[in-house]
Amino acid sequence: MSKLAIVYHSAHGHTEFIARHVLGGAQDVEDIEAHLVKAEDMARTPERLVQYDGIILGSPTYLGGVSGTFKSFMDTTGALWRTHQLKGKLGAGFTVSSLPSGDKQSTLMSMFVFCMQHGMIWVGNPILPEQHRGVPYEEAANRLGSWSGLMAQAGHSSAPDAFPPGDVKTARMFGRHFAESLNRLMVPA
User: Are 93 and 108 in contact (CB under 8 A)?
Assistant: First the structure.
């Protein structure tokens, strides 16, 4: 059984909503034990990350980067970095902003660099944008065209579940892809 943590911060509920759908996709895969963990809780005991085989990071995009709360969590992992305790684990990331771009790529890049510094293996987002196959834009998987991680868009001050159906579908597909990748990596020799 592979263990997966989805570590996220969500100030207004949007990122948590997407995290729950990433979790649902991961739980659709056999031999995966997946957990949602708030970044502020993990920051108190970052050594718990060692028990997981894969870690998906999730943060809103604030001013072109991860939220302050999420950055604080990242900063608490210094002792794990010094001892390379996360080396070889799978990592991935997702983010939410209120604009189609919103500089979400910068947020994903900070997560990527964080994982690379820890010696982790990054899993991207290989989902082809469905609007190119005639699926209506709002319903299309990976409608925002992100390959480095999952991007989702929720309108400013909208309800936490006010996402286009394509973003929700993409979140589930992303979680499933990560879990399947984790299972492939964890095959015993």
Answer: yes
Q: What is the pTM of this model?
A: 0.96
**93 has which bridge partners?**
57
130: DSSP letter? G
Q: What band does 188 get if pLDDT is binned at 50, 70 and 90?
A: low
In angstroms, the CA 183 to CA 54 distance is 10
The domain spans of the chain are 2-185
Distance CA 109, CA 104 (A): 9
**Which tokens in the block code for residue 74?**
């990242």
What is the dihedral angle through the alpha carbons of 108, 110, 120, 167, rounded to the nearest 10 degrees? -10
Distance CA 143, CA 148 (A): 14
CA separation, residue 173 to residues 49, 58, 143 (Å): 24, 15, 13
Query: Quick check: 189 pLDDT over 60?
Result: no
pLDDT of 59: 98
Fold of 2-185: Rossmann fold (3.40.50)
DSSP 6-50: EEE--SSSHHHHHHHHHHHHHHTSTTEEEEEEEHHHHTT-GGGGG
Q: What per-residue confidence (pLDDT) applies to 101?
A: 81
- Give the CA dihedral 57, 42, 165, 183, nearest 10 degrees: 60
